[in-house]
Amino acid sequence: MAEGTVTVAEVETAFQKFAVHGDTKATGKEMTGKNFVKLCKDCKVIDGKNVTSTDVDIVFSKVKAKTARVITFEQFKQAMTELAPKRFKGKGQEEALQLVYGLIAGKEPTNVGVTKVAKAAAVDRLTDTTKFTGSHKERFDESGKGKGKVGREDVPDGSGYVGAYKGQGSYDSKVKQDE
């Protein structure tokens, strides 16, 4: 094999990695249009000048079966054969294809823009129990740990006294005095 050529197996490995990206049910045998565009973006097949995401979409539609929504690796190679001369203008078909495969081989889906857990100041403020006021304050102890059900529900007091009565528990002593 000549210097700088990439084996089809290497490209197929990359194809499989992108094919299963973001899809738990994917087998890696077929690729959706979304993942095809992602592969083209991540591997810099789309350069914004010669090849745009529109071109990639058109080629995807062209190579897939009429009713299918996915392409196989064979169709993928066909798509790359179409995109390669556009991406590397002035190069021969084979050379351009090798260059495109060179871009793809060994690549994996990059997680660009994957949602990071934002622990921003706003979230910290909202979850800081020391700043809680009113009835919400009652739901946490001094350490900021939740009290559970006690902090949430009014637990009925079966003593028979009204809530704010100060002389609670003094009934028996009063009755006994009067006798």
What does this structure look like?
This protein has helices spanning 8-20, 33-42, 53-63, 73-87, 93-104, 121-127, 134-137, 149-152, 171-178; strands at 30-32, 70-72. With 179 residues, the chain is mainly α. A two-stranded antiparallel sheet has the order 1-2. The chain has two domains: 8-104, EF-hand (Recoverin, domain 1), CATH 1.10.238; 115-153, no CATH class. The chain starts with 7 loop residues before the first helix and ends with a helix. The longest helix is centred in the middle third of the chain and has 15 residues, at 73-87. It is rod-shaped and about 115 Å long. It is found in: Cytoplasm. Belongs to the TPPP family. Residues 134-179 are annotated as: Disordered. GO terms for molecular function: tubulin binding.
Chart the SSEs and their pairings.
Blueprint: H1 8-20, E1 30-32, H2 33-42, H3 53-63, E2 70-72, H4 73-87, H5 93-104, H6 121-127, H7 134-137, H8 149-152, H9 171-178
Antiparallel strand pairs: 1-2
Helix pairs in contact: 1-2, 2-3, 3-4, 4-5
How many H/I helical runs? 9
Shape label? rod-shaped
Question: Which architecture of the largest domain per CATH?
Answer: Orthogonal Bundle
Overall helicity: 40-55%
Average of the residue pLDDT scores:
81
The portion of residues forming beta strands comes to under 5%
The protein's oligomeric status is single chain
Radius of gyration: 34 Å
**Tally of DSSP β-strands:** 2
CATH class of the largest domain: Mainly Alpha
Query: Structural class of the helices, strands and pairings?
Result: mainly alpha
CATH structural fold name of the largest domain: Recoverin, domain 1
Q: Which strand order do you get reading across the main beta sheet?
A: 1-2
Amino-to-carboxy terminus distance: 114 Å
How do the helices and strands follow one another from N- to C-terminus?
HEHHEHHHHHH
CATH superfamily assignment of the largest domain? EF-hand
Main sheet overview: 2 strands, antiparallel
Uncertain residue segments: none
